Amino acid sequence: MLLRPREDFYSARLPTPADILLLVEVSESSLSFDQGIKRALYARQGVAEYWVFDLPGRRVHVYRDPTVEGYGDASVHTLNEAVSPRALPAVQVVPGTVFA
Fold first, then answer.
1. 2-99, which class in CATH?
2. What is the mean pLDDT of each run of 10 residues along the chain (100 residues)?
3. Whole-angstrom Cα distance, residue 54 to residue 12?
4. Which of 34, 73, 65 is nearest to 48 (CA)?
5. Neighbouring C-beta atoms of residue 17, cutoff 10 Å
6. Chain mean position to CA 89
7. Hey, which bits of 1-100 come out as E strands?
8. What is the pTM of this model?
9. DSSP label at 36?
10. Could you say which of 21, 34, 42, 63 would form a disulfide bridge with 87 (CB–CB 3.0 to 4.6 Å)?
11. Residue 80 burial by Cβ neighbours in a 10 Å radius (0-12, 13-18, 19+)
């Protein structure tokens, strides 16, 4: 998880969905669970951005714009495509460097 910065580093209370800027799952054998039950739960709770690194498929699924119905924006990126979290647009992740 990439969390909203806080002076107490979350020592006073645990993070809530509103504190989560980016949640990342690494999926080797749980892709259907991560993209089904977990994705629906995270969207319903308002997690702003959710990435699923699909190791067997060698790609990353990016979900943004949560609603109670699911994520309004979904995209799939290949190994060579740079992806940036909305909260940190200057940071680029190239999935191929993660899967290497």
1. alpha beta
2. 95 95 95 97 97 93 97 94 95 84
3. 34
4. 65
5. 15
6. 14
7. 2-3, 20-27, 49-54, 59-67, 70-77
8. 0.93
9. I
10. 21
11. exposed
